[in-house]
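Budget justification, computational time. The allocation requested in the original proposal was used primarily to generate structure tokens for proteins on the priority list. As evidence of use, we reproduce two of the resulting records. The first is shown immediately below.
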Amino acid sequence: MTEQTTSPRLRGTVADILAAETVQAAWNSCADGLERLGFINLLYGATRVPTWGIIGDGQDALILYRGPQAYADVYLGEELYLNSPTYQWAEHHEGFVSWADAVTQNGAIPTPEQLKIVQLNIEHDCLAGFVGSLNHIVPGMRGVIGLSPGRKMMQPQADALWAEVGKDVEVLCQLLHLRVASLPQTPQRRPLTSRQREALSWCAQGKTMQDVATIMNLSIATVEKHLRLAREALDAQTTAHAVQKATSLNLLVGAI
């Protein structure tokens, strides 16, 4: 993306996202920019270790949200998103589409969970919106983002808004996904301690348990404890699996 191809109204937001040093900072800059374009309810999810679906295990996924907390408590807390036709559309497609088109393409009879989503959206004035599949942006990293203008705006009015700002919205969402891919991510599990990150980093470099103990000036038993806790935090069966997960989430950057 160059200065010449960036929309003038996006340049400040683009610069802020690129300068962000944390995932939360990148998200805040992107969400602020999307709000200025007319979208106030936002939900982004990404993962490098999907076991099923577009996000997989929510404990391994990065999920970022802006909107009413009461909405998130139900939609995320009860994992209704797993049953959403927009989520299902994003799993099998690329690009962006309106909620209405995603539902039409899904073509299935609404389930009780989907009817609950409809009611939840009505209660929070989210009557229209768009979903974006970001799976093609970063190799090995899946992502999805949902956006709604809220304010009881109906889909025809939302479509008119999209015709005006949709390209800019896509640029910000794709840039966010790219920036997130380069930053350390903290999934929903408890974060790794600095000692756990360091021990995993040395293991990633092929060091033996004795080597790691010597380098870290710890006993082998203490190193084993750090690695065990790291495996538990990452829900990994082996240390090699923990290294793979931590590496894919950029959690080992700067650990040693």
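The second record produced under the same allocation is shown here.
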Amino acid sequence: MLKILLSMTFVFLWALPAIAGQVSGIDALFDNENRKQIQALLENRNSSPTSLVNVSRLLSHDQIAKLYEQREYQPVWFDGWRLRPEAGILLEYLRNAGALGLCGNDYLLTELEGLLRIQTDFARHSLPLAPTNRAVLDLFLSQAFLTYATHMVEGQVDPALAHVDWRARRRKADLLKLLDYATRSHRMEQVLEGLSPPHEGYRLLVDTLQQYQELSALGGWPEIPSGASIRPGGHDERLPLLRTLLLKTGDLADSVTTTTDYDTETEEAVRLFQFRHGLVDDGVVGPKTLEIMNIPVEERIRQIELNLERWRWMPKSFGKRHIRVNVADFSLKVVEDDEIVLQMPVIVGTRYRKTPVFSARMTYLEFAPYWTVPPTILREDKLPKIKRNPAYLEEKHFRILSRQEKGAFVDTEGIDWDTVEAETFPGLLRMEPGPWNPLGRVKFMFPNRFNVYLHDTNETYLFSNNVRSFSSGCIRVERPRELASYLLENELGAERLQELFEATTPEQVQIKPLPVHIQYWTAWVSPEGLTHFRRDVYFRDLDLDVALTEPAYRVIDQLEVNIGMRPVKK
């Protein structure tokens, strides 16, 4: 192949004897030939017999066509026949894509490696690639940049396609301008670095991914055989193997202990492991802990990769001061200047009534709230109970609000409940404020399309559970008074706040608008440097894993995203 290419190149150069000694003239001729070849390839999309690779790998790419039209088909990556150094910088980033949880094959890495290998061999002899191959290389480099940049800025898949209840405010960037700036200003490295999500959580998780990839290359951690629970102070033949696992996961410091006694040092390491995985940290290695310990490192790597993808869906900023709920962790954090100033457990939606992922702005608190029963709960829960026992309405402090007359209530005495269905229910079913109300004493409102909010609860005993997915989609907070006091910035005083929590009629209190981000993380790194994993309670990891392997979901195949790529029609 190399001999054929050299022959083609000599023939091409033989046609230029008049300007062989004039460098600028040769560059101009090469530029002109580059333009012709690039335009021909974009217009025909057919592979040339003299091309090193099949150009059908060049996707039908609206933005690539726009890029080269704006440049009058001038190459992006070549000066005459010489390849710009920016190409080598880009290639290094593409080779490192796996360390970010990306796939190098999405960026034509195999084709680029082959073309650049030939280009390097030719350049070593001060010879150019054949015109078609220069054009293909230029186009492939542009496509690789735009695809990689899109994946870094917006993610590999559209979250709205992968999850019907996920609405993320993704970052945007004019990638054509970025590419032009990177090549013209010789700032390719700075531009590529700037594509990463600007969040410390992302950077820490990237570091963790690389650590786990290295651990995988060394064989991962051992599997602990099943058996009776290993309890602190006890004795078990599996303890040396358990210590090896804890050393590899980073929960146990260097230890030379080989005893089969369950010592204090090992117990502390087990408790740390349990804490990092959202388990009850009692130091007992029972079935649940053993199951989590025996998840192989390769599965953890994939879990990290999926959460890195979620980071790429995140907005540029969460806000200087904001509330962040992690549904998978059943937790709420209030953040100011990147510091956690308040945190507490929460209860989220069941697997069948999932809490959605979105962002909104909290604008007011409502004390002594009514609870208007949602249609789904009315149909599946309340109406069957009313039919069995019409007195249920009065016993549970329900009233039916008229749909026709504002503020009026429906007289229920003459209703034949056996004939009533959810669709023909005579009004809005509403529960009065009070200690019986499932919304508790206060709800925290951030208007959104899902009608989801934070609220108090009359079922505080549920917070003792480790897995807290019991609600119908809204989020119950464990310490509503503490959260309300923080949000009101102690403006009302303790006495007034107590009055509001004891109120029997609804009262709204406005607050300074505050961003609220409902998120779903199953892997993250804490500010203390601990890597946490959680169960995929809603199977969203599974959905995302499937989406990343399905062309229909991939950003590289979606016309509507920034770079507008789609497969070639066959």
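A brief technical remark on that second record: Residues 227 and 287 are 8 Å apart (CA to CA).
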